[in-house]
Amino acid sequence: xxxxxxxxxxxxxxxxxxxxxxxxxxxxxxxxxxxxxxxxxxxxxxxxxxxxxxxxxxxxxxxxxxxxxxxxxxxxxxxxxxxxxxxxxxxxxxxxxxxxxxxxxxxxxxxxxxxxxxxxxxxxxxxxxxxxxxxxxxxxxxxxxxxxxxxxxxxxxxxxxxxxxxxxxxxxxxxxxxxxxxxxxxxxxxxxxxxxxxxxxxxxxxxxxxxxxxxxxxxxxxxxxxxxxxxxxxxxxxxxxxxxxxxxxxxxxxxxxxxxxxxxxxxxxxxxxxxxxxxxxxxxxxxxxxxxxxxxxxxxxxxxxxxxxxxxxxxxxxxxxxxxxxxxxxxxxxxxxxxxxxxxxxxxxxxxxxxxxxxxxxxxxxxxxxxxxxxxxxxxxxxxxxxxxx
Length: 390
Description:
Number of strands: 20
Number of domains: 2
CATH class of the largest domain: Alpha Beta
Distance between the termini: 53 Å
Strand content: 15-25%
Number of helices: 10
CATH topology of the largest domain: Creatine Amidinohydrolase
Structural class: alpha+beta
Radius of gyration: 23 Å
Largest sheet: 6 strands, mixed
CATH superfamily of the largest domain: Creatinase/methionine aminopeptidase superfamily
Helix content: 25-40%
CATH architecture of the largest domain: Alpha-Beta Complex
């Protein structure tokens, strides 16, 4: 392996990731993994391309075999980007001077190692999606007609869910960018400005502070908007007394931050403030329950137990679920829910977001990004967690 100038991590980081996934493959009997998503190709190889959103091409596919080898299939033009952004030396191209088709380039490492009839892992389920279109997927499966094609989600999350020190440093930076940018956007907000105006100010701050990209932000203000969960910002003017919710965050060095902050121009009603305070406290009850070695389900239970005893028990939007993992993906496994039996481990990172929705009153609460530590929990987004009065 070689280190190139556009890598986000040093060579040893990718070597450690490869070592971990090969160990998981050995434990579960996988002969190879074929990874076509942007998140997994980035995580294991470093490969980056600006055309992952394309519906007509898949920029690269990573192939990992049980002997610890990693290969990357791409077009001839894509090979130059692969050499600049990834640690992979074994680059298989298709087209002129390469394999006749993309699929043949993908399976070529398996053919060479006699693994065409082996147990091959794919991104089939639980937070993963293949990037190949249907025709190419069927062509690939046709080539692998003698193989056992199985879901590899569990072993992929076993590796990705526990972050290294280098990943944690990047998460911390992204979280800091997120909180400070949203606060700056709120401070620039004036009555009569639109949700889109606020969106533009926050997004501009993300990039000024060093973000690579950003998640589409959910911004909602006003009674008719409170119920529209995960809705993009509109051109609706923001008025005095409107509860303003901002949800999402930047992507820094490939890693996501995802938080909720809320503000109001003027003053909230006493009832709105009370609902917000209860929802905020529910978030911190969940955070207090984060302890290494405990089942993840204890976090969701702590939130629900608190809200069940509150005066707003019937308004708990996410009962039995209070958040999700974060990392290269904005929604990663494991989930913070009542059915997850997996234990909390130091290095896991989550977004915790219980909130209360009451028609005409608001969608009220905060979302915090947290890190499981040896002692308990570190809040990565501690700033401005109150209802911000503008």
